[in-house]
Amino acid sequence: MLSRQGYTNREIAQQMGIAEKTVEQHISKALRLVRDWLPNYLLMVFILSLIH
C-alpha cells in the first residue's frame, strides 16, 4: 500500500525497519500473485455477468 501511495522502497524499508531488498521482494511477490489471480477473477466476473 505504501508503494502505491508514492513512497519509495527506501522510505518503506526505513519506516518498517526492514531491508530495502525485502521490500522489493514483497512487492514483486504481491504483483506476481495479482497477475496470476486477475485472469481467473475477470473470467468469473464475465460469467456472472452472463447469468444476471
From TrEMBL:
<dbReference type="GO" id="GO:0016987">
    <property type="term" value="F:sigma factor activity"/>
</dbReference>
<dbReference type="InterPro" id="IPR013249">
    <property type="entry name" value="RNA_pol_sigma70_r4_t2"/>
</dbReference>
<dbReference type="InterPro" id="IPR013324">
    <property type="entry name" value="RNA_pol_sigma_r3/r4-like"/>
</dbReference>
<protein>
    <recommendedName>
        <fullName>RNA polymerase sigma factor 70 region 4 type 2 domain-containing protein</fullName>
    </recommendedName>
</protein>
<dbReference type="GO" id="GO:0006352">
    <property type="term" value="P:DNA-templated transcription initiation"/>
</dbReference>
<feature type="domain" description="RNA polymerase sigma factor 70 region 4 type 2">
    <location>
        <begin position="5"/>
        <end position="32"/>
    </location>
</feature>
<dbReference type="InterPro" id="IPR000792">
    <property type="entry name" value="Tscrpt_reg_LuxR_C"/>
</dbReference>
<dbReference type="GO" id="GO:0003677">
    <property type="term" value="F:DNA binding"/>
</dbReference>
<dbReference type="InterPro" id="IPR036388">
    <property type="entry name" value="WH-like_DNA-bd_sf"/>
</dbReference>
<dbReference type="Pfam" id="PF08281">
    <property type="entry name" value="Sigma70_r4_2"/>
</dbReference>
